[in-house]
Each structure stands twice: as structure tokens, then as C-alpha cells.
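Trying the structure run again after the queue cleared.
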Amino acid sequence: MLLITSFYANGSQSTDLAAVSAIRDAISGSIATAWTGTDCCAWPGLVCDPDTLRVTDIVLRAGDSSALTLQGDWTGLISDSLCQLDQLTTLIVTDWSSISGHIPPCITSLSGLRILDLSGNRISGDIPSDIGKLGQLVVLNLADNEISGEIPSSVVSLRSLKFLDLSNNKISGEIPSDIGKLKMLSRAILSGNQLGGSIPDSIGGLYRIADLDLSMNQISGSIPERIGSMPALSSLKLNSNLLSGEIPARLFGNKGLSHLDLSRNSLEGKVPDSFSPENYFLVLNLSYNKLSGEVPKSIHSVKYMGALDLDANNFHA
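Done. C-alpha cells:
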């Protein structure tokens, strides 16, 4: 029995070594020269479980200021052998200017993955359609790449997700209508894409969210009334879209909202007269819309107003 147990333990460690060796073989520069020997747990950027000696974390940031400066070219992305690391909980591979290719679809088999950060590369292709299988995922950051396609509908199954950043890609389609199921979400950054459709009403059910950024897309329709009732919301950026209709009165009744940017849309009607001494704005930008009427007198009652921009509207005295 001891021999059998030892065999499977060594076999698992051997599989991990083969997997990270395949990753190394796609790299030139300081990583390739530092990842030597048969003890991959000692390789910079890798972390192993102290008991099982299985690889649990891969953290490779280009230009990292740690003991190993991660420099040099990295061609391709990561081979599918990554998916053999079945104990992986953290995958951070960021800011490599020469990483391209697609996200390996088999990555969704890593059921224990909690952090997936591939930001700042040149990754293309779609987000795996079954990304929702990663039920333990807390961080999903694919920002600053060349990812296309739509946001998979399965993303709403990531019930542990707290941080979602898909900004500055080429993602199209619509925001999933039931995004409100992501009850743990505290930050959602989807800016700088080609998203269309309307803002789902269910988004108002994200009662933990503090930072919501849907700016620089092609989102149309009106601003859901429920957004004004999101209790933790402190920053809302909807600028540079195709939004129309009136600004919901509840929005200025949200006392925690400190950064609000609705500029460069087609919003119309009057600005709701619902400001109060409890409002504290670092930024309030309503410029480049079709707003009309008078600027509400209650705006003078706010506790603090940092940057206020009402330019390029149809206000009158």
C-alpha cells in the first residue's frame, strides 16, 4: 500500500514537472534559464503545496521586481499541458508584450482555480464558453488583450466571483441578462469594448458592487432605475455609449456614489432635483448629452463637489 501511494504521489509530481517544463520550453530569456533542474517547486514564479509538492500557483509578471526579473520574449501563450496542473489555484501571467494565441479551452477543467489573471498580453480568440465551470473563481482579469467574441452566458455561474475585468478588448454582443446572479461581485470593469444592447435590469441586484465601469462601448437604451439603489456603489462610469432617455432620479439619491460619469451619450430631459447635503462627489460629469431645463438648485447643497462638468448640453438659466 505504501508503495502504491508513493507511486501515485510521484506520478502527480512528475506530471506537474512535465507540464511546467512544456511552459518553459515556449519561453526564451531569464525564465527559461532560471527554470532548471527537476525540482520545479524551487523554480521562481512557482508555488507548491508543502505537503503534496503539487504546483498550486503560477505567478509570472513581466518585469517583476522580485529576485528573478522576468524578461525576454515569450512566444505563443501556454501549452495545453497547463491543464495537467489539476491542483492549480492561481494563474497570473501578465504584461508580456509578445504573448499571443488563445486561452486554452481546457483551462475550465481546473476546478480549484481561484485567480485567473492574463491581463496585459496580446491574447486573442474567445473566452471559453464554459468558463462558468470554474466555480471557485474569485478573480477573472483578461483586460488589455485582443479578445473577441461575446461574454459567455455561463459567466453568471461564477457565484464566488468578486473581481471581473474584461476591459480594453474587442468583446461584442450584450451583457448577460442575468448578470445580477453574481451576488459576490464588487468590481465589474467592461470598458473599452464593442458591447451593445442595453444595460440589464438585473445589474441593480449586485448589492456588493462598488465599481461598475461600462464606458466606451456601444450600449444603448436607458439607465435602469435600480442602479440608483445599489447600496455599495461608489463609482459608476457609463460614458461614451449610446444611452438615451432620462437620468433616473434615484441616481443622485445614492449617498455613497462619489464618481459618476454619464458624459458623451444622448441622455435628455432635466437633471433630477434630488441632490442633498449627503452627496459627496469627487467627479460628476454629465457633459455632451441632450440635457435641458435648469440646473437643479439642490446641486448647491451637496457636501462636496470636486470636478463638475455640465458642458455641451441644452441648459438654460
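The longest strand covers residues 55-61. Worth checking whether this holds up in the mutant runs.
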